[in-house]
Amino acid sequence: MVSRTIPVEAFDLVIFGGTGDLARRKILPSLFHRFCAGQMPEGARIIGAARTEQDAATYREFIGAALHEFADAQGVKKADYDTFLAQIDYVHVDALGTEGWDELAGKLGRGVIQAFYFSVGPSLFEALAERMHKYGLAGELTRIVVEKPFGHDLASAKALNKALSLHFDESQIYRIDHYLGKETVQNLMAVRFGNMLFEPLWNSQYIDHIQITVAETVGVGGRGEYYDRAGAMRDMVQNHLMQLLCLIAMEPPAKFEPDSVRDEKLKVIRALEPVAPEEMVRGQYAGGEGLASYAEDAGNAKSRTESFIAMKAHISNWRWAGTPFYLRTGKRLKNRASEIAVVFKDTPHSIFGDEAGRHRNILTIRLQPNEGIELGVTIKEPGPGGMRLIDVPLDMSFADALGSDNIDVADAYERLIMDVIRGNQTLFMRDDEVEAAWAWTDPIIEGWQERGDRPLPYDSGSAGPTDALMLMHQDGRRWREIRK
Ligand code: BG6
Q1: What confidence category does residue 176 fall into, taking pLDDT thresholds of 50, 70 and 90?
Q2: Residue range 56-60: average pLDDT?
Q3: Shortest CA distance to 480 belongs to which of 370, 323, 277, 328?
């Protein structure tokens, strides 16, 4: 694999929650991939910090096992594992007490970037920030990385932002939304702002509607307790789908720089109109064929939490007035497929007559799987017998176009962690952005609660409740097939 890597400076990365699931599945395998790509300088150190009392050797074994399970280790030699693991250390730290903090402070290098990954629940954020200061772990070279959920609603997000701001400057806080690290999500910006072709048409005059689908096949599995308090709206829409919507809808930023990009995204969120009850459909997966129902997975027989949501959103600004954005996400759906489809309007007049048929141009940005961009164009059906129009894809699958050997398909976390080390906040959410997203989300959720809405059951392996199809049908539109 050809890897285009930009060297980074030596760093210390402390992972609070270093024994947790995210550390095992994502953070450490991502760092290992970057190490294999030659991007981890020799002096870089990773320090796991958690409640478990164990020594560094035991932690290394634990991480070694995680790498074998979760890292793509094709062509990796045993010596590489050993060298990587040798850069890992461990400290037993009590986030709410005094234990381990002096030891951790003693392990940090001087004059190097120090990143602290808060891979713990938000209830510990403030305690960690406070202790980092008290024990002299925070300085000018410090950056903290915080995971979602960033709050549960506007009030809690504000409280978290305030608590962190007592100890850190906004320029030191990296709020992760891993969707922003996905290759195609960034490509979306390259396509919009690197080509002359699309931007002149990118408005309600030419675009009929936009569909954003993030479909998953998995259920809530072992995360039932968290998920039942969150639901698809808080877990996916408030952050991931909202970020996709922002990148699709924002005005061109003056520069690809953190505040230029984040200012434009913020304007989109603030221009979102409230969503009326009849403009959304909530669903909850039912069990069957050996699969547990949502209620069973969540351990809450009376749960009213949604594992699926579809909605029609409107952006009230000059560019988008009149172009709806249909958002849809759910678990246990028929396929794992995430895409954004930009559906252009009909041509104003067909010179070929009704028999020829009419097709709309659709620009599809596929996030996963098979990342790529496809533009549906109308051509003449080959052969004699008059003019019949058909739709063919101008397909730009990255793997085909670039050759799979030439793309470094870095995981979202790899890119984002390296951005933290490089000090680039472009792909991270700013405090006001997160708060604006909650300000739009809260009234929607409160509305359900006040009305006592129950989610509609849907079969596992389906496309969600049939009412979601109606949401489009009543506007004379159709959801795109959720295909692999
Ligand atoms: C997480 C959500 O943020 O994103 C999960 O909490 C969801 O519920 C996951 O499954 C989806 O991420 P990806 O990268 O697999 O699409």
Answers
A1: very high
A2: 97
A3: 328
Query: pLDDT value at position 130?
Result: 96
Which amino acid, one-letter code, is at 436?
Answer: A
Catalytic residue among 152, 240, 349, 359: 240
DSSP 405-450: GG-----HHHHHHHHHHHT--TTSB-HHHHHHHHHHHHHHHHHHHH
| 370 CA to centre of ligand 1 in angstroms | 17
Taken as a whole, the chain contains a residue count of 484
Indicate the pLDDT class of residue 2, thresholds 50, 70 and 90: very low
Per-residue pLDDT reduced to its tens digit, 256-295: 999 999 999 999 999 999 999 999 999 999 987 889 999 9
Q: Which residue has the higher pLDDT, 348 or 306?
A: 306
Ligand 1 midpoint to CA 85 (Å) = 28
Check: CB of residue 163 under 8 Å from CB of residue 131: no
Indicate the pairing of strand 362-368 with strand 372-380. antiparallel
Mutate to test the pocket of ligand 1, among 30, 152, 178 (most ligand atoms within 8 A of CB): 178
Tokens 């017998």 belong to residue: 385
How far, in Å, CA of 345 to CA of 368, rounded? Answer: 26
* Cα–Cα dist 294/280, whole Å: 20
Ligand 1 first shell, C-beta below 6 A: 178, 216, 235
> Quick one: pLDDT at residue 260?
97
214 Cα to the center of ligand 1, angstroms: 9
| Complete DSSP assignment for 43-84 | T-EEEEEESS---HHHHHHHHHHHHHHHS--TT--HHHHHHH
Q: How far is the CA of 272 from the centre of ligand 1 (A)?
A: 23
240 catalytically annotated: yes
Question: What one-character-per-residue DSSP string does 25-48 give?
Answer: IIIHHHHHHHHHTT-S-TT-EEEE
| Ligand 1 mutation pick, 183, 235, 415, max ligand atoms within 8 A of CB | 235
